[in-house]
Design goal:
Number of strands: 4
Oligomer: single chain
Strand content: 15-25%
Mean pLDDT: 91
Low-confidence stretches: 73-82
Number of domains: 1
Distance between the termini: 26 Å
Order of helices and strands: EHEHEEHHH
CATH topology: Collagenase (Catalytic Domain)
Radius of gyration: 15 Å
Length: 154
């Protein structure tokens, strides 16, 4: 799996990026995602994620993570995915400011919070969501199972 990391904050440690690479590869294997898949993880500040949240979700407030799935299908859309074309999953955007605030509030490490947000965003790219109680329970259970099995618990 190819993960393209972009740290616009210049504050995420190389060790943290290595951990996230291994974590997402682990999650992808558990979910049966092809090792040929590609995605990006972008680290931004609260100002930038608030702008994205406002422009794409009509919520003018900073959030912790936003995912932009490229595999969402639209009625009438023609599929161009072939066997020799890598599966482009999409983009995950994480607010490092929010991650730091939440790690402190939940009394766990920044690495654990970044891992949680990366897995959360990754599951969104795979089509999981939390619009109702049932889908939320399914997604959050899966997140905790992945993080626990990877030994990145609270």
């Amino acid at each position: 799996m190819h993960i393209d990391f972009h740290d616009k904050t210049k504050s995420v440690l190389t060790d943290d990026i290595d951990l996230l690479q291994r974590l997402i590869e682990y999650a992808a294997k558990r979910e049966g995602v092809s090792h040929e898949s590609e995605l990006s993880i972008n680290f931004v500040d609260n100002r930038e994620i608030q702008e994205l949240n406002r422009n794409y979700r009509q919520q003018d407030t900073p959030t912790d993570v936003i995912s932009f799935a490229l595999q969402d299908s639209v009625d009438g859309e023609v599929s161009i995915v072939g066997e020799d074309i890598p599966l482009l999953l999409g983009d995950i955007v994480i607010s490092v400011d929010k991650a730091k605030q939440q790690a402190e509030a939940y009394n766990h490490s920044l690495q654990r919070e970044l891992g949680f947000l990366a897995v959360h965003g990754f599951l969104h790219l795979l089509g999981y969501d939390h619009y109702n109680e049932e889908s939320e329970r399914e997604m959050f259970t899966k997140q905790e199972e992945i993080l626990g099995a990877f030994q990145l618990e609270r």
